[in-house]
Each structure stands twice: as structure tokens, then as C-alpha cells.
């Protein structure tokens, strides 16, 4: 006996069952309401989802075992009584009356399909015993529910219930259950969409053999066929999830109705010449509500999904640059900054309109998207620090090969995907905390990474809420959208990213192959489409503003002091002339004095921060005569500035 058991164990290990068919799963994506969005068959071309008996109506299971294997829970995978009965009927009647196959034997044949023969029957018997040995009766039942043929390329009870009836198999009616059972026996001849009369007749015959009580109903067969196939309304998200290894039935955060509405808008909106559109809509919690990676336009590369494509953001990263400068105390919204021709090493950026606007404020510079102030701000915080902070917050940047972060980041000299740009702008709505954008539904709480402080985030939104609107657009009050546009070098990409309430919308327009589209701009091309998308979004709160309570590590008394009176520069006086250079060449440092606001202070001269140790009176030693811009920022982010002439 021990030798027999040892031999069986050795055979089980040397000849394990081939489980590859059961492991090859399809992917069916549903929207947040459970409506089918899109799907993709398994690698071997089947609609197949792993199915557990707990997910199937118990009454279906009872009918299945009653019809296919009454002694399923007692035999070891082969039913000797059924085999004796089948053999006796074959001998006495001269033809096969019943097959004698158990569910374990049928499952063995479904795992490794083969032609019906005596050799194949013996193989199924041995495999049936092996399957119950390895996985138990419950495991065998789960395998059958996963693999049962249900016409066409549909396999398994869950796939059949979803694709034939449009609902999960946990609530199957009597006729639906009977149809799935008879289809598994004759998948093609009882296919209900092609042979409806034969299918209904088979269902009626099966139910007629069951007791006329409980859930089994006589008479009309009220089951109705649903779609029988998967629709294709979200190919981009489908591919994204597939590449991540997601299989089975996956309920997403996408709103199918919103997805369809945006698809209609894109069809009706002429794309950039020779190009296409991409639109991403996300909620404040990071869930993706709509994903349109392309508009179905006919152009080179238009079949690609642009939501995950690397593109130059143009000026769309400027809010993050200023936000970090606010967070570090280097700048404030009303800090005076210069928009003048400057050289940063060998880098000499220009504005898009090739006009320099002189003295301005950070607020105006960001709203008008001036380039020089943004480059100055990035120079203050450091390009490496900026790129590293975004990376630590989960926002990816793609630098040109063999390069390191440089000041060109401020003007789009880097790659970013619309998906990551959406994550950046959702972080502004979340008080500066970056969380992954996800298709999971319900939303799974995810730890966030601090990008900038809450106050800096509100300051950025307050500034962006005053950005110039697209031509012909008027938005006031609760309809206000905080947004930023971007146009990449050479007019290859037109961006618009905006926030309102709980919603963030990112729009990209251009040619997928990266060639230029003369005349496109973020404000003129993509911003109108972004506003159109906001028009169809439901209201959900208002934008945070810079007047909201300060969330910082300051005491209430200091907060009140900072709100009551911002910092003021006492010395030097705005517009004054300061004698620092003597005739003998000696240079006298200029002392800097401030009052009000909340210490510690941070001083900047011509945009460059002064390194002043705590407890030391700040001073500045000019390197030559001329005009100088001196700015002061306190611990709350408030600031003031003066312009002087040094002699």
C-alpha cells in the first residue's frame, strides 16, 4: 500500500496537470457604475475569468451538480457507479446513452482538450483523480466554473453571465442557469444568438426534468441576451491596466457617460492640423474620471494613446517652480521680479512674444507666462532640486539623453506625460500633496508625498485663477478655473491644465509624431477645449484661495501678526540712492533692516538669496554701481521689495 501511494505521489510530481489555460485570463473593464467599458481577450483568444463558487448563484451550482455529477462530493474524481451504468447501457443498447464523466473528468479535458476516444477517456479519469488529489473538490469546481465552454470564445460562468446576460453570476435566474448548463454540453449548436429556438427548447427540456418547486419556473423563458461582446470605449486605460498585469473583471473609476460626452466633444472639435487631441479628467482624490488618449483622428501616429506619451510641457511646469520658490521663502506672489534680457551661463532665454516687460510681480509673471522670471525662480531653487522634488513626489520627468537637469526645465526642456502632469495639478488641489492617479474604484487610500506646502499651493491656485482667459470666454465666481497653458518649443505641443473644485482637466493637442504644427498655442488651441470640458462637469466645491487660514507650524499669535501686517523694508528706502563706492575703491556693505511680518526673514538681491546666518544683521556688498532690486519674504510667505541705485 505504501509503495502504491509512493508511486502515485511520484507520478503526480513528474506529470503535473497543465494549468496554463486556466491561468490565461481576459480583462473586462467596467466603469464606476458597473457598465462595460472595454475588454481584451486572453492570450489564447478567450473571454475567460477566474471564477470561484462563492461568486456564483448557489441554485445554479445545485442544478449543475444535479444534472452533471450527483455524487460529486463523495467520489474521488471518478464515479464507479456512473461508469458501470454507462458501460451497461452501451452493451445492452448498442450505443452510448450516458457518458459517465464526472466534473473532475470534464475539467481535465477542458484543461487539455483532446478528441473523444477510449484513450482520452482513460486519460481524463487519471487526471480527474489527480485534480481532486491536488486541489480538492472545491478547487475542481472552481476550475470547471472558470473553463466551461459557453459558445463562441466565451469560457467560464462569470464571462458567460456578464457577456450573455449583462450581470454577475451571483444572481442567475432559472432559465439563465439552465442555458449555461446546456450550452456547456453543446456550445455551438445551442448558441443562443444564432440558434435561439434550439437553445430555448433545450432549456425547457432540462427544466422539465426538475421538481416544479422553488426557483424553477415553468412556461415562458424570460431570459434576455445582453451584448454578447465587449464594447471599446476606453482602449487607453485598458492597455495601461493590461501592461500592469491586471486580469479578470476590473471596475474602474471612469464615468462611462462622461467618457462618452468627452468623446463627442473631441469628434466635434477640429484638431490641430495633421494632429489629434488627448484629454484627462481626474478627481481630487486621484481617481481618473475620463481618459481619452486620442480622438480617433486620421494622422501619423494617431492610433497611439497620448495620455502616457512623453511630450514637452512648454510653460506648464512654471506653477510648480514658483510653488517651490514660495515654499522655500525665496519669492512671494507680490515679489517684484525682473523680466529683462539675461544670460545664465551660456543660456539666454527669451519670451514667447520676444518682448521683455521690465519690472513686474511674480503674480503677473506667472499669469502672463513670462519666461525670464520663471528661469530666475528656477535658478534660485536649483534645477536639480526641482527635478528631484518632482521625482520624490512621484511625478516623472524624462531628460534628454546624457543630460542633467538644467534651467531649460522652466521652458519645457524635458518630457512629461499628460498623466504625470495631471498628478502635478491634482497636487495643487490637495494642498500640495501628490498622490498617484489611479483607475481603482472604490478609491484605495494611498499615502501622499509632500510636493509643496499648503499655503504655497493655495497661493499658486489664487494666481492661476486670474490667468487671462481664452478669446471669447467669460468666467466669474464659482465658475472660475485656475489654469495654466503651455506651448512647447517649435509649436509641437499645446497644453492646458486647469482646476475647479474637485476636478482637474489636462488637455494636449498636437501631432503624435512630434512634428511642428504652425500656429498652435496652449491658450489659443487647447484652453478653449479645456473650458468646454469643464462646462460639462458637475459642480463640486470651489477653488482654494490664498485667503484661507494659514496651515503652518507657526503659533496662532504669529499667524495673526503676519496677517495683520506684512514685512516692510525699512532700509534702504525705495527709490533711494546709496553711496557704497569710495574714491579709493573701498566698498561699504549696505545694511538691510526690516520690520513687521513674521521672522525669520529671507532677503534676495536681484533674485539671488543672501546667505545670512541667524542672529547676524543682514547686509549686502554690491559688486558694482547700478540699479538693484531688493526683496524681503517672511515666514508666512508675505513680502515686499524696493528698487535702489547704488553709487
UniProtKB/TrEMBL annotation:
InterPro entries recorded: Beta-lactam/transpept-like (IPR012338), Glyco_trans_51 (IPR001264), Glycosyltr_51/Transpeptidase (IPR050396), Lysozyme-like_dom_sf (IPR023346), PBP_C (IPR009647), PBP_transglycosylase (IPR036950), PCN-bd_Tpept (IPR001460)
Catalytic activity field: [GlcNAc-(1->4)-Mur2Ac(oyl-L-Ala-gamma-D-Glu-L-Lys-D-Ala-D-Ala)](n)-di-trans,octa-cis-undecaprenyl diphosphate + beta-D-GlcNAc-(1->4)-Mur2Ac(oyl-L-Ala-gamma-D-Glu-L-Lys-D-Ala-D-Ala)-di-trans,octa-cis-undecaprenyl diphosphate = [GlcNAc-(1->4)-Mur2Ac(oyl-L-Ala-gamma-D-Glu-L-Lys-D-Ala-D-Ala)](n+1)-di-trans,octa-cis-undecaprenyl diphosphate + di-trans,octa-cis-undecaprenyl diphosphate + H(+)
Gene3D superfamilies xrefs: Biosynthetic peptidoglycan transglycosylase-like, DD-peptidase/beta-lactamase superfamily
Keyword list, A-Z: Carboxypeptidase, Glycosyltransferase, Hydrolase, Multifunctional enzyme, Protease, Transferase
Highest taxon, organism lineage: Bacteria
Domain Glycosyl transferase family: residue ranges: 47-207
Residue stretches making up the Penicillin-binding protein transpeptidase domain: 278-488
EC assignment: 2.4.99.28
Enzyme category, top tier: transferase
UniProt pathway annotation: Cell wall biogenesis; peptidoglycan biosynthesis
Pfam families with a match to the protein in the record: BiPBP_C, Transgly, Transpeptidase
Chain ranges of the Penicillin-binding C-terminal domain: 563-643
Family to which the UniProt record says this protein belongs: In the C-terminal section; belongs to the transpeptidase family. In the N-terminal section; belongs to the glycosyltransferase 51 family.
Record protein name field: peptidoglycan glycosyltransferase
Organism in which the protein naturally occurs: Asaia siamensis
Amino acid at each position: 500500500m505504501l509503495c502504491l501511494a509512493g508511486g502515485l505521489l511520484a507520478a503526480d510530481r513528474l506529470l503535473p496537470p497543465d494549468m496554463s489555460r486556466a491561468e490565461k485570463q481576459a480583462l473586462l473593464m467596467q466603469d464606476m457604475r458597473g457598465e462595460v467599458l472595454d475588454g481584451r481577450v486572453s492570450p489564447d483568444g478567450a473571454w475567460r475569468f477566474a471564477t470561484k463558487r462563492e461568486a456564483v448563484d448557489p441554485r445554479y451550482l445545485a442544478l449543475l451538480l444535479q444534472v452533471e455529477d450527483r455524487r460529486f462530493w463523495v467520489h474521488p474524481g471518478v464515479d464507479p457507479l456512473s461508469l458501470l451504468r454507462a458501460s451497461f447501457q452501451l452493451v445492452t443498447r448498442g450505443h452510448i446513452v450516458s457518458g459517465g464523466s464526472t466534473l473532475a473528468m470534464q475539467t481535465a479535458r477542458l484543461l487539455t482538450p483532446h478528441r473523444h476516444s477510449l484513450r482520452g477517456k482513460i486519460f481524463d479519469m487519471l487526471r480527474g483523480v489527480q485534480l481532486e488529489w491536488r486541489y480538492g473538490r472545491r478547487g475542481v469546481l472552481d476550475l470547471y466554473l472558470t473553463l466551461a465552454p459557453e459558445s463562441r470564445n466565451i469560457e467560464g460562468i462569470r464571462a458567460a453571465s456578464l457577456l450573455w446576460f449583462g450581470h454577475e453570476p451571483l444572481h442567475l435566474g432559472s432559465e439563465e442557469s439552465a442555458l449555461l448548463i446546456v450550452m456547456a454540453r453543446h456550445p455551438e449548436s445551442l448558441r443562443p444568438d444564432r440558434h435561439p429556438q434550439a437553445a430555448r427548447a433545450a432549456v425547457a427540456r432540462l427544466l422539465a426534468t426538475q421538481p416544479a418547486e422553488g426557483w424553477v419556473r415553468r412556461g415562458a423563458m424570460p431570459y434576455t441576451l445582453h451584448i454578447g461582446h465587449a464594447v471599446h470605449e476606453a482602449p487607453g486605460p485598458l492597455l495601461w491596466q493590461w501592461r500592469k498585469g491586471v486580469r479578470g473583471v476590473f471596475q474602474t473609476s471612469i464615468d462611462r457617460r462622461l467618457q462618452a460626452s468627452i468623446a463627442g466633444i473631441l469628434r466635434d472639435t477640429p484638431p490641430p492640423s495633421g494632429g489629434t487631441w488627448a484629454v484627462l479628467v481626474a478627481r481630487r482624490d486621484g481617481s481618473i474620471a475620463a481618459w481619452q488618449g486620442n480622438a480617433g483622428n486620421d494622422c501619423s501616429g494617431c492610433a497611439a494613446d497620448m495620455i502616457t506619451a512623453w511630450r514637452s510641457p512648454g510653460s506648464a511646469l512654471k506653477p510648480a517652480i514658483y510653488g517651490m520658490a514660495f515654499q522655500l521663502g525665496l519669492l512671494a506672489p507680490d515679489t517684484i521680479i525682473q523680466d529683462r534680457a539675461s544670460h545664465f551661463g551660456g543660456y539666454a532665454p527669451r519670451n514667447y512674444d520676444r518682448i521683455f516687460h521690465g519690472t513686474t510681480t511674480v503674480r503677473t509673471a506667472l499669469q502672463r507666462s513670462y519666461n525670464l522670471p520663471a528661469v530666475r525662480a528656477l535658478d534660485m531653487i536649483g534645477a536639480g532640486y526641482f527635478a528631484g522634488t518632482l521625482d520624490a513626489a512621484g511625478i516623472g520627468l524624462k531628460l534628454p539623453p546624457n543630460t542633467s537637469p538644467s534651467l531649460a526645465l522652466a521652458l519645457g526642456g524635458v518630457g512629461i506625460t499628460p498623466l504625470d502632469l495631471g498628478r502635478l495639478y491634482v497636487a495643487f488641489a490637495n494642498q500640495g500633496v501628490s498622490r498617484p492617479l489611479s483607475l481603482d474604484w472604490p478609491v484605495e487610500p494611498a499615502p501622499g508625498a509632500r510636493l509643496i506646502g499648503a499655503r504655497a499651493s493655495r497661493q499658486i491656485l489664487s494666481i492661476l485663477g486670474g490667468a487671462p482667459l481664452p478669446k471669447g470666454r467669460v468666467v466669474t465666481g464659482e465658475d472660475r478655473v485656475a489654469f495654466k497653458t503651455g506651448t512647447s518649443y517649435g509649436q509641437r505641443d499645446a497644453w492646458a491644465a486647469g482646476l475647479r473644485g474637485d476636478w482637474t482637466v489636462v488637455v494636449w493637442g498636437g501631432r503624435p509624431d512630434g512634428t511642428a504644427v504652425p500656429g498652435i498655442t496652449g491658450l489659443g488651441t487647447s484652453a478653449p477645449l479645456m473650458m468646454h470640458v469643464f462646462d460639462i462637469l458637475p459642480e463640486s466645491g470651489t477653488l482654494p484661495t490664498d485667503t484661507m487660514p494659514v496651515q503652518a507650524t507657526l503659533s496662532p499669535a504669529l499667524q495673526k501678526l503676519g496677517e495683520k501686517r506684512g514685512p516692510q523694508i525699512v532700509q534702504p528706502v525705495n527709490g533711494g540712492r546709496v553711496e557704497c563706492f569710495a574714491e579709493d575703491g573701498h566698498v561699504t556693505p549696505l545694511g538691510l533692516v526690516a520690520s513687521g511680518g513674521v521672522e525669520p526673514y529671507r532677503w534676495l538681491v536681484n533674485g539671488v538669496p543672501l546667505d545670512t546666518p541667524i542672529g547676524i544683521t543682514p547686509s549686502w556688498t554690491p559688486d558694482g554701481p547700478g540699479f538693484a532690486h531688493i526683496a524681503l519674504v517672511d515666514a508666512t510667505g508675505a513680502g515686499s521689495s524696493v528698487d535702489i541705485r547704488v553709487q
